[in-house]
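Table S7 (text form). Paired inputs.
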Amino acid sequence: MRKLIVGAVMAVALLGAPAVAEAAPPPPPGWTHVTDPIGCGSSTCTLPAGQFCKFAVDISIVANEEIQNVTTRADGTTVTKIMGLLVLSFKNDNPKGRKIVKDVSGSTTTTVSPDGSHVTEQGDGANWWAFGPNGRMNTGEPALVFSYGPVTVAGTVTGGIYTAHTFSLHGIQENGCALLS
């Protein structure tokens, strides 16, 4: 799962749709295709300059075959599991800015408390994370992170804005802003 966590970590994207010319195969029973894998309501999104990297970052879907399974526990906790192919393009919006393409197909599980105020995302494999100013302050992470290995990001939602409070990775990471500079 790939997240756009707004404010501190734009929880980048829990739902998405195929962005490839061919139709994706039908998902297994209980699973659906992800229709918004970058969390912007379209196949492109821009991280504004200054709130994330020093420059704007345009994100677009190269390939999407993600599927998800959403369950609600008896106490109202929602658990969303996502897996499948997701390839994204990240471009520095400056005229001579760099562009990179990343396979961020690592699986994720997102757990949201019954009142929606607490969110925990657990990922494995290759994922991406965008941290806003408060999330960076809380976690010490750069604004755009590519992680490889088991990772957990936890935070709270206040006034519709998610703020990451913790980031724990048992693997390696790359600073996306530095890669695009």
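Next pair, protein 2 of 2.
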Amino acid sequence: MGPYTHKHFFIKPGMTIGRKVGDILLEDDPTISSLHGRVIGRPDGRLFLEDAGSSNQFLMGGRQVAKLELAAGAVFQIGKSVFEVIAVQPQDLAKLSPQKNWKDLVFDHLENNREMGPSVAKPFSPAIKIECLEGPNAEDIWTLGFGPRLFGPACEDIEILENNSADVSFEIFQGDLGPSLRSKTQKLSVNRRFVSIDTEVNLSDGDEIQVGESRFKVHSL
């Protein structure tokens, strides 16, 4: 039940699950936290799913729990999505269609956009992290290694759930002096200073970006 009906995910110890951060990304369910849970392995081979500090933890048997065993037949809920644990034999793997993790998605994106030359797609120097402090995406964190990256309510790249913005709120790209921001909406400010549409601003560690009711903080990595 939920956005991932009929989808399959392979799990192993050390994997993480979340809407924005994790080996398994559940981006289609807005009720899932940015980083929701971790798969923990025991010496005896058993696997457990442990909460990573999410708002809603997990539901199992009608109860909210912070940890559950991933035993065959277990049924649990993350956000609006209900999952069942199944044991898969090696000969059955080819019958399933596993979801790709974030690394595979990045490589697919680059593979499908080979025409993007180095003047368009560039690594950020330094890499940055965008943390949402206030607004519908509060607690969400995005780690950016290359750009340009687009943020906005209608963006396939990084969707922010902000009503008081144009479809694309802002773009972050690698400028001459490091990561830079280009405003794409009329209601954007950096460090409480209004930034007009198509104006570029160099970003530094600690800068704050405001779009409507959403406030973001820039962290250099």
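The chain has two domains: 16-100, 113-220.
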